[in-house]
């Protein structure tokens, strides 16, 4: 055997797994076409999701009580943080990992990998953490953001319809994130769409919204473009990160889940007990519900969600194996919705395509 573990892919999930496995004393090989590539995305998470081994320096800023708005304002009783992306990447050091700059041509389960330009490698375990490829039939999340000088409060989502979208169009919300260095990210986000809104349209909506709010944006530090599939991850051992279905299909969050799962997976613990598989199925039904909602019902839907008790919100957003909590959150949400919403969601949960699009 060439190693105890081969990790394919060195995004946040793969790098975290390789780092933690090496820290456990395992011999690790990591394969990625561009292992030295610096991450450019802005990553955020709920503070209570992070593992205790993560270095404090990777957190750039914390908002103790972020806000959210459907048709009215809510204050969320849960701390929300933004990572220092460079510090996060550097903290997951790979000094004890054999890193190969190459593309994985083939994985022969359970223990053989063929790089595109090298001899096959073998290991006791192989984990595929190469992410998800886009497919025309996969729902996606898209976003276009700008980083501006000046501090603004963190707003988890703001569905106020002041972005120039016409009635009946797929809606988008404003995500505002205080970065902790005197700058703020403003991001127009399409939560889920099949197809999702294009980046050019999201840019137009963001500019319209910022003009409407008298926010100056001529001096832009950074632009951010986001597009990734919400579907396609396989909930089975041997896959990790978004490839392994750790991405929340109804929210798009995945980094904190991967960081939290890195140690157990490195130790060889099962990632998908029956409870986690059931939660993933419920969350996938939640994605279908979001896709089925008529555009004018999306903001009122989130009013109902943010009225749930904090423990139920947390269970749905973060309880990856909390079947009881996730089911309780979805049941409470369903009961609180008006009858027409319940009919739409019940139909979507059964897999029947919506008729309004």
| Residue windows where pLDDT falls under 50 for at least 5 positions | none
CATH architecture of the largest domain: 2-Layer Sandwich
| CATH topology call of the largest domain | D-Amino Acid Oxidase, Chain A, domain 2
Strand residue content: 25-35%
SSE-based structural type: alpha+beta
The major pleated sheet works out as: 7 strands, mixed
Number of domains: 3
Write down the overall geometry.
Answer: globular
Lateral strand order in the biggest sheet: 6-5-13-14-15-12-16
Can you give the helix content as a percent range? Answer: 25-40%
What is the CATH C level class of the largest domain, in words? Alpha Beta
Cα-to-Cα separation, first versus last residue: 53 Å
Overview of the structural elements:
The protein has 357 residues and is an alpha+beta fold. Strand 10 (112-115) and strand 11 form a beta hairpin. The protein contains nine helices and 16 strands. 30% of the residues lie in helices and 25% in strands. The chain is globular, with a radius of gyration of 21 Å. Helix 5 runs parallel beside helix 8 (323-336), helix 5 crosses helix 9 and helix 7 packs across helix 8 (323-336). It has helices spanning 12-23, 85-91, 199-212, 255-266, 274-292, 298-306, 310-318, 323-336, 339-349; strands at 3-8, 28-32, 44-46, 59-63, 67-69, 73-75, 80-83, 98-101, 104-108, 112-115, 121-128, 140-149, 155-158, 173-178, 183-193, 220-229. The protein folds into three domains: 1-35 and 95-132 and 232-272, 3-Layer(bba) Sandwich (FAD/NAD(P)-binding domain), CATH 3.50.50.60; 39-93 and 134-230, 2-Layer Sandwich (D-Amino Acid Oxidase, Chain A, domain 2), CATH 3.30.9; 274-349, no CATH class. It has a seven-stranded mixed beta sheet with strand order 6-5-13-14-15-12-16, with helices on both faces.
């Amino acid at each position: 055997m060439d190693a105890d573990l081969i990790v394919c892919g060195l995004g946040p999930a793969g790098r975290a797994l390789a780092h933690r496995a090496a820290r456990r004393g395992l011999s690790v090989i990591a394969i990625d076409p561009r292992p030295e590539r610096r991450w450019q995305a802005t990553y955020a998470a709920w503070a209570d999701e992070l593992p205790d081994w993560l270095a404090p320096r990777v957190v750039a800023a914390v908002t103790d009580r972020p806000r959210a708005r459907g048709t009215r304002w809510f204050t969320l009783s849960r701390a929300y943080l933004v990572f220092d992306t460079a510090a996060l990447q550097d903290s997951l050091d790979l000094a004890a990992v054999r890193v190969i700059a190459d593309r994985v041509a083939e994985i022969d389960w359970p223990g053989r990998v063929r790089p595109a330009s090298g001899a096959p490698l073998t290991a006791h375990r192989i984990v595929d953490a190469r992410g998800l490829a886009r497919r025309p039939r996969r729902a996606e999340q898209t976003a276009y953001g700008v980083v501006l000088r000046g501090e603004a409060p963190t707003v988890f989502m703001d569905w106020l319809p002041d972005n120039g979208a016409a009635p009946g169009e797929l809606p988008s919300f404003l995500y505002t994130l205080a970065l902790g260095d005197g700058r703020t990210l403003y991001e127009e986000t399409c939560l889920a769409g099949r197809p999702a809104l294009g980046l050019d349209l999201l840019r137009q909506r963001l500019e319209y919204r910022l003009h409407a709010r008298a926010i100056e944006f001529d001096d832009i530090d950074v632009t951010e473009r986001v597009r990734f599939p919400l579907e396609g991850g396989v909930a089975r051992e041997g896959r990790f990160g978004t490839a392994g279905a750790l991405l929340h299909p109804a929210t798009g969050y995945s980094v904190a889940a991967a960081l939290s799962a890195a140690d157990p997976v490195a130790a060889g613990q099962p990632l998908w007990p029956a409870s986690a598989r059931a939660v993933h199925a419920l969350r996938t039904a939640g994605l279908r519900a979001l896709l089925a909602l008529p555009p004018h019902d999306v903001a009122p839907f989130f009013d109902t969600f943010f009225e749930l008790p904090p423990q139920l919100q947390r269970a749905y957003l973060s309880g990856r194996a909390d079947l009881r909590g996730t089911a309780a959150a979805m049941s409470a949400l369903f009961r609180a919705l008006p009858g027409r919403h319940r009919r739409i969601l019940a139909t979507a949960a059964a897999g029947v395509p919506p008729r309004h699009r």
